[in-house]
Amino acid sequence: QVQLQESGPGLVKPSQTLSLTCTVSGGSITTNYYYWSWIRQAPGKGLEWVSSISSESSVSNYADSMKGRFTISRDNAKNRLYLQMNSLRPDDTAVYYCAHGSGDYWGKGTLVTVSS
What are residue 75's DSSP bridge partners? Predict the structure, then answer.
């Protein structure tokens, strides 16, 4: 059974940088030809796709509002995904989830609050 767990600092100030980690267990992040994604949900809003990275290459994609600010990456040896978020804004406040591209596996999410 594949399990995903997000972790990272919960509170940062506007314009600061924060990195999230998604640790995957029960399966390799390099198999099955799927993408791995970060998705967020702001308070009172729906799910918003943030970024995805290929399971087999460095190909990645970003939502328009995250391009140039966020960077997705992975460490195959550690079976982890990362999301580095620069120039954070208050509207980046959300619960951030990592998920397998099939949609079958999600982490429980980690809350990121951007506030002065």
Answer: 80
